[in-house]
Amino acid sequence: MSQTTTSPKIALVLGATGAVGKAVVKDLLVNEHYTKVVAAGRRHVQLDDSIPQDKLVQETIDFENLDESRGAFKDVDDVYCCLGTTRKDAGSAEAFRKIDQEYVIESAKMIAQENPATEGVKSKVHFLYCSSVGANANSYFLYPQSKGQTEERLQQIGFSKVSIFQPGGLVVEEARPRFRPAESFIGLIDRVSTALRLNMTIPVGGAARAMRKAATDTPAFIQPKTHQESGSQVIYYSNRDMLVMNQQ
């Protein structure tokens, strides 16, 4: 059995307009764990009328001028970070690193400053980061290297807890504004993975559900990797862990 957290809390979703971020926002709004859900990104997330929006607050963030957004980052309990991009969408490796890593780290630092702990670690916040399978700070390839470096840097900031999710292929549930050929390939992998029970993919809604469960429940039947770093409890969730959490 899982133990559900019932005390009123406030959630912040960074990168709320991306596929995973939007799925997280929708999941949090239809569940009762939070009294307020702050969706923060470069633009507002578009939701249809089937999603209750009475506790949704939308904040437009200029990541080049984060000081202007301090108020949006204040008085939050759980931060779901789904901020990221691809090299193609960013336009260059330098622009990719700025969005995928620097925006994440600088936002995290400000969130820690605005939500200090009473004792022990620097911040009371539980920071939940959607990374990727294969993340490795020493990788030769840009994408897994950036994710791995971001994971390492988040652990040094001083949050009470850092949960890192490493999904495999993410299966989108809504059409993208811009076609991504790789996602068609992931769809093929998903069909093969599901048929052979290889646990290689996960729908974005499933990734969102696993992240919310890690913040609001005590997941049973999984043993994620855990360690302490700079006072933070750091927990890694694999794609298989996330799939199991969806079955609970």
Automatic annotation (TrEMBL):
It is a peripheral membrane protein. It comes from the Eukaryota. One of its GO terms (cellular component) is mitochondrial outer membrane. Residues 15-136 form the NAD(P)-binding domain. It is found in: Mitochondrion outer membrane. GO terms for biological process: import into nucleus. Belongs to the FMP52 family. PANTHER family: OXIDOREDUCTASE HTATIP2. This is NAD(P)-binding domain-containing protein. It comes from Hesseltinella vesiculosa.
